[in-house]
Amino acid sequence: MSSLQDVSSPSVQSRPCLNRLRDLLTGLFASLERARTRHLLAQLDDRQLSDLGISQADRINELDKPFWR
């Protein structure tokens, strides 16, 4: 049995480059999702905002944020 080698794939934790890439892609997709939902928020009328419990001030505050926040 001593001649057997461990051929399992390395874990993600042992690959810091993959961790950074994963974190970068996760952040990118989250930013794109925020931009998409803010675009939809900008299209809502007063009745729809009221139905959601969002004031005009809340909407303006959200729309003024950059896509990465």
Could you list some keywords that capture this structure?
69 residues; mainly alpha; 61% helix; rod-shaped
Detailed description of the structure:
This protein is mainly α and 69 residues long. The chain has one domain. The protein has 3 helices and no strands. The radius of gyration is 22 Å and the shape is rod-shaped. The mean pLDDT is 87.
Give me the secondary-structure topology:
Elements: H1 16-42, H2 46-52, H3 56-63
Question: How would you summarize what this structure contains?
Answer:
It is built from 3 helices and no strands. By secondary structure, the chain is mostly helical.
Stretches where pLDDT is under 50 for at least 5 consecutive residues are none
Provide mean pLDDT, rounded.
87
- Count of separate DSSP helical elements: 3
Estimate what percentage of residues fall within beta strands. under 5%
What general form does the structure show?
rod-shaped
Compute the separation of the termini in Å.
54 Å
Radius of gyration: 22 Å
Q: Could you say how many structural domains there are in total?
A: 1
Which structural class do the helices and strands define?
mainly alpha
Got a strand count?
Answer: 0
Mind describing the biggest β-sheet?
Answer: none
Amount of helix? 55-70%
Instruction: Give the helices and strands as they follow along the chain.
Output: HHH
